[in-house]
Amino acid sequence: MKELYAVAIGVTITCALSAPARAQEWNDAGLPQSVLDAPKTNAPAAPRRDISGVWDAGGAGIAGPGHESPPWTDWGRQKAAGFKPGNGPRAVYEADINDPLSTVCDPAGFPRLVMYETRPFQVVQTPNQVLILYMFEKRWRVIWTDGRQLPKDPDPRWYGYSVGRWEDDSTFVVNTVGSDERTWLDNAGNPHSADLKVEERYHRVNRDLMELTVTIDDPKTYTRTWMPRNRMPLTLAPANFDMMEMICSPTEVMDFRKNISDRTNNK
Amino acid sequence: MKATRFGVTCVAFALLVLSAPAFAHHGTASFDTTKDLTLKGTVTEWIWANPHCFLKFDAMDETGTVRNWAVEVSNPTDMTKRGWARSSFKVGDAVTVNLQPVKNGAPIGRLRTVNLPDGSTLSAGGPAAAPAAPVQ
Hints:
The structure holds 2 protein chains of 2 kinds.
Chain A: H1 2-18, H2 33-37, E1 53-56, H3 74-81, H4 100-104, H5 112-115, E2 121-125, E3 129-134, E4 140-144, E5 161-168, E6 171-177, E7 197-204, E8 209-217, E9 226-236, H6 250-259
Chain B: H1 2-17, E1 37-47, E2 54-60, E3 66-72, H2 76-81, E4 94-101, E5 108-115, E6 121-123
Parallel strand pairs in B: 3-5
Antiparallel strand pairs in B: 1-2, 1-4, 2-3, 4-5, 5-6
C-alpha cells in the first residue's frame, strides 16, 4: 500500500511539474488544479519589468458569490437598491435577476472584470502600452505607459481609462478612472459611482507566480476604501496556452432565459 | 503511445484533484435544496453555451406524465475542466439524470450527475447528491 501511495504522489508531482509545457494545442479552459496548487517558491527569478504571458488564478478568480464590501453610503444604498443580484446576501430568484451582464450581455466593465470571472488573461507589453487580453468576454484593456496623466473629467467608458507605471522592477501599478456607473462591481450587486478610482498592483514574485491586489476607492458609494483582491495568486501558463472563447452572446442568453431563467420564478 | 498513456494518467490525476469552482452566474435561491430527483429519460437537446449549458430530456414522473425537463450545469469553460464536451450527448440518448428541481414545480433544475448510455457518469460538480431511487 505504501508503494501505491508513493507511486501516486510521484505521478502527481510529475504531472504538476510537466503540465505547464503540456497545454493542449487549442481551447484551453484553464490550468489543472494540480499546477495551480503546486509550490512555486523554487521557480527562477522574475524577469525585470516584465509581466507578459498568460496568467490564471483558477477558481479563486471567479468569485461567484461576490465580495463583502464595507458599508454603503446613502447614495450607495439607493444605487444598490436597483440592482437585483443572483448571488450574495441580496440574491433573488433567477427570474428576477437584473444583472446587465448575465441577462442582456452588457459588458462586465471595469473593475468587475478583475473582481468576478477573472479567468485566464494574457498580458502583452509594447513600448508605450500594456495590453490585457481576457478570456472572459474576449475583451481587452489598454493601459498607457507613456507617462500621460489620467483624464481630469472623463466621459464614462465601460472599461475606464488606465495608466500604468513600474513601482519597482517586479511591481506594475495601474490606476483607472472613468468607469461607467451602469456596471456592477461583482455578482452580489455592489454598485460604484462615476467617481470610482481603482488601483491594481501586479507583483511578479518569480517567473511562475504573480500576485494581484485591487483597491477600490469610491467615497461616494463606500464609507472607506477596500481591497476585494488581496495578493490573489496567478500562475503563469505555458506559451502555447490557447484560451477558450467565453463570450456572452445575446442569442444564447435569450435562449437560456426562455428555457430556464424565465420559468424559475416563484409567482 | 507512451506519451498518450502519460497524458491519460495526468488527466486522470488532474481530475481527481480538480476542485469545482463556485456556481458562478447565480446562486441557489430558485432551487429547492431539500429535494433530490433521479429521472430516467431521453435526450431531446443539449445546449453547449454561455452563461450555462443545459440538457433537455423527456421523462415520466410519478403520475405517469411525460414532461420535457431542462436542467442546467455551468458554462462550457467550467464543464470542459470537468470532462464534459459539446459532444457529450446526442438526441435520443437514454440517460439517468440526478437533479435538484426548482421550487415552483416546473420541470427545471440543476443537474448533478448523469449516467450515459455507455454506463459512464458525468458529474456537474458541487455537493454530492444523496442516493435516490429512479422515479421511472
